[in-house]
Amino acid sequence: MTVETANSDAPVLLDLPPLDAAHFARIEDKVAALLRTRCDVVAMQGEALLPLEAAIRSAVWPGSTALNIITGPYGETFGGWLRSCGAEVVTVSAPFTGAVSPQQVADALRKHPETAFVSLVHAEAATGNTNPVAEIGAVVREHGALLMLDAVASVGAEPLLTDEWGVDLCVIGGQKALAGPAGVSAVSVSSRAWERIAANERAPRRSYLSLLDWKERWINAGRTALPHAPAQLEMLALEQAMNRIEAEGLDAVIRRHRAAAAAVRAGVQALGGPVPYVVRDEDAAPAATTLRAPTDLDAREVVSAALAADGAVPVQAAAGALAKEMIRVNHYGRAADRAVVLASLAALADGLKALGREVDEDAAAGAAGLAWDEVVAMR
Ligand SMILES: *Cc1c(COP(=O)(O)O)cnc(C)c1O
């Protein structure tokens, strides 16, 4: 792809040579390497909710039992899809202040041995928690159910070992830690999952939601002819995002995200006022840190005051029922950066001061900088 100089009026996104099948397959292979999987990877031509819904509708059938693990807002969405597939849905929930435990999952599977499908979110950008997928995956694998993982907010921000963890359907998007596009996404499909999907009479076929169409028309045909015109610009952007991560090194990118989370958590504790919403460090997502607003302040007021101090920082109020109490500091992708994290803390400090609070801005910056440097120095 050629990039025009900034002062040229020539369109840079038009008139590109077509994205051919071989190139499309290479991008899928790059995703497979990123996910540490030898399974098939399908690059889905839509935002990540497309493969999430496609995976559920493909692998879940009427009268089957599905275990839905809810640790944030996406789990609620999955529950709706599972029910609309006619599944009996067993729900395990963890408070948004922590993670679900492998023991909770093991107990639910023991109580419902007929469970055929388990849906789990790895990291929750919206609520700032992350779940121990390796341990949960082992429990699910021992039971024999299929495991679907929403890894949209974890890929690139923390280790994601699809095959080692026994994940059958691993869904990612480009728009979080990969700092890529939101318009395409991908799902890895294990051979066990393909078998059950093929046996499911209700699995979508000849449909935008069909994984089987991709299997039959693309994978089984040797990935030599694309079934439809691909979302070319988004695919190229995803490739560039993965190339940029490869150049920096995945370990370094992950370390940058961990450093950002550690810095925000340490900084906020030194600041005085809001506190980390997720209680234990190990349950905190590297992609975003959520904060509990002081009880006598509305989180939306704090966010508005912080953004009035510095409108460029990635600080936002939570959505829905949590909006009053939860402040979200995003630090995924390019925002997993020392200067951005320090600017976010400074904006929160200025906002809190404008609201009449006494906060220790210098202590916050000192603690955050130290925490960042400690993680980055660790190997
Ligand atoms: C961001 C995200 C998605 C993608 O959904 P959008 O609302 O379109 O951003 C899916 N799952 C998780 C866990 C996410 O964090």
UniProtKB/TrEMBL annotation:
Coiled coil: none annotated. The keyword Nucleotide-binding does not apply. It comes from Streptomyces halobius. Keywords: Aminotransferase, Pyridoxal phosphate, Transferase. PANTHER family: ALANINE--GLYOXYLATE AMINOTRANSFERASE 1, AMINOTRANSFERASE CLASS V. InterPro entries: Aminotrans_V_dom, PyrdxlP-dep_Trfase, PyrdxlP-dep_Trfase_major, PyrdxlP-dep_Trfase_small, SP_NH2Trfase/AEP_transaminase. SUPFAM superfamilies: PLP-dependent transferases. Its cofactor is pyridoxal 5'-phosphate. Belongs to the class-V pyridoxal-phosphate-dependent aminotransferase family. It comes from the Bacteria. This is Aminotransferase class V-fold PLP-dependent enzyme. Pfam families: Aminotran_5. Residues 84-301 form the Aminotransferase class V domain.
